[in-house]
Specification:
The chain is mainly beta. It contains three helices and 16 strands. The strands form two sheets. The protein has a nine-stranded mixed β-sheet with strand order 8-9-10-11-12-13-14-15-16, with no helix packed on it. The longest helix has 9 residues. The radius of gyration is 22 Å and the shape is globular.
Length: about 350
């Protein structure tokens, strides 16, 4: 069993040696791991923790000199893996496996796994963008995450069903301080933002508020409760209440106070009183934040178009708009997220 360098020695990461492993808590994979480098590890699985927000493995590796290291292995969330038909039954403590992934910045024994070779010779792609290394029939390339077009068999459901993000759809992904109409203060915050150090205080299970939580790639559904509509988002087990009665008392919360109305088949939702306003690039939206969302299901029920207008004078010089869409995949449901820190 050994550790082999596959592509590079990631020398540039040596500049990060001052950062201990413990600080890598909750930030982008590209901030924690060197995505330009790839290494291969062979060893025995000591531990398998199959939970959100990241599946974690511990691998005992013996180097060429006979010494042993314990490598902490991070993977995507249970929710993301489930959407690619990858489940925990594939791995158990005691398995002898080979894996490939991106090493942690700073030289610590941590890795973000992309490919795993199981004891029986099957390969599992743990990262959606990974290419097979050992088996052209590798698992991880099927499931809801690869469905591009929504199902048209149930138009009568309208809005009230589970919606999934199609492949390639991003939300807020392309937001940049260079092109956004930001105030001087917000632009200075964005320019100074460091995705590694500025995210250290954010816990792994710290629920995002509105509108950031809308951008997650997990299933969401809508439930008709008469005078309210519940919007359930799988990530963090979040539940929004959309009041159809404009006189409902306004109560602040991370997801805000939402009032909805129907307009020509579109659910228009106005949200204020948002207490958790972390946005992008270190920007926290202001107290006067207002969101106007438009949810428009297609006539055949296959697609839900979404558009949100963000008005926040302390951040933006003018209202800004983002849009995306989700699709209907029968059989997909909102599953418990049950996030656990650490």
């Amino acid at each position: 069993m050994k550790c082999t360098n596959v592509e590079s020695r990631f020398a540039a990461a040596l500049a990060m040696l001052a950062f201990p492993a413990a600080i890598f808590a909750h930030h982008g994979i590209g901030a924690q791991f060197d995505l330009s480098a790839s290494i291969e590890l062979q060893g025995e699985l000591e531990r398998v923790i199959w939970r959100n927000p990241h599946v974690r493995l511990t691998l005992r590796v013996t180097d060429d000199a006979g010494g042993e290291d314990l490598w902490e292995v991070e993977a995507q969330s249970v929710s993301m893996l489930r959407q690619r038909d990858i489940t925990e039954v594939l791995l158990e403590a005691g398995d002898e496996i080979t894996l490939v992934g991106n090493p942690a910045r700073g030289g610590v024994t941590e890795i973000y796994v992309t490919n795993v070779l199981l004891p029986d010779g099957r390969e599992v792609l743990f990262s959606q963008g990974a290419e097979p290394r050992w088996d052209d029939e590798a698992m991880g390339r099927t499931g809801a995450r690869f469905v591009a077009e929504g199902d048209t068999d149930s138009p009568e459901l309208g809005l009230f069903r589970t919606w999934s993000a199609p492949p390639g759809q991003g939300f807020f992904r392309d937001f940049s301080h260079a092109g956004a109409p930001l105030t001087d203060e917000a632009r200075a915050t964005a320019v100074a933002y460091d995705r590694l150090t500025d995210n250290l205080a954010t816990g792994e299970c710290s629920q995002a508020g509105m509108p950031a939580i809308i951008g997650n790639p997990y299933p969401r559904d809508f439930i008709d409760r008469g005078d309210t509509i519940l919007m359930r988002l799988e990530e963090y087990d979040a539940v929004r209440t959309i009041h159809l009665d404009e006189t409902a008392a306004a109560i602040g919360s991370p997801l805000g106070h939402s009032i909805g109305r129907w307009q020509d088949g579109t659910l228009v939702v106005t949200t204020t009183n948002i207490s958790s306003r972390r946005f992008r690039l270190g920007i926290a939206l202001g107290d006067d934040l207002q969101l106007v969302e438009r949810y428009t299901p297609s006539a055949d029920g296959s697609r839900l178009d979404y558009r949100v207008t963000i008005t926040d004078p302390s951040t933006f010089l003018e209202p800004v708009e983002f849009q995306t869409y989700w699709i209907y995949i029968p059989g997909v449901t909102v599953e418990p997220y049950e996030c656990i820190e650490g």
